Amino acid sequence: MAMEIKNLLGEVNPYSKKRIEQNRAANAGKTASSSTETSDKVVLSSEAKLRSTALQTASEAPDVRRRKVDELKAQVREGTYKPDIKKAAANLIRDDLDLLV
Predict the structure, then answer these.
(1) Which class for 8: exposed (0-12), middle (13-18), buried (19 or more C-beta within 10 A)?
(2) N or C: which end of the chain has fewer CB within 10 A?
(3) How far apart are CA 34 and CA 27, in angstroms?
(4) Could you please report the per-residue DSSP string of the chain?
């Protein structure tokens, strides 16, 4: 029996637990009547593997930008934040050009 896991973050549907319990009950009857033993196999999709890696990397990464964000919030609150408009425009144009390539 093979099972493919596509979402490691859990089911969003609130009725999924009931559906899982119903499937387990249905499968329990099948397993009891089966005379040959089978082994279960779990297969992760490439999307699930990618999500798992991204989640693990994000959870292990230090929160380096937290201090920067806090500093910027304080500047905005105090009215001392002066963004570099030319730099922001250049970054927007660069990002748009990267999308075209």
Answers:
(1) middle
(2) C
(3) 11
(4) -EEEE--TT----TTHHHHHHHHHHHHHHHHHH--S----EEEE-HHHHHHHHHHHHHHHS--THHHHHHHHHHHHHHT-----HHHHHHHHHHHHHHHH-
pLDDT at 71 (0 to 100) = 93
Residue found under tokens 């922001």: 88
Ramachandran angles phi, psi of 41, nearest 5°? -140, 135
49-93 confidence digits (pLDDT tens): 898 888 888 888 777 688 888 999 999 999 999 999 999 999 999
Contacts of 47 (CB under 8 A, 6+ apart): 6
Cβ proximity of 101 and 92 under 8 Å: no
Give me the amino acid identity at 43.
Answer: V
Question: Which sequence spans correspond to the domains of the chain?
Answer: 1-61, 64-101
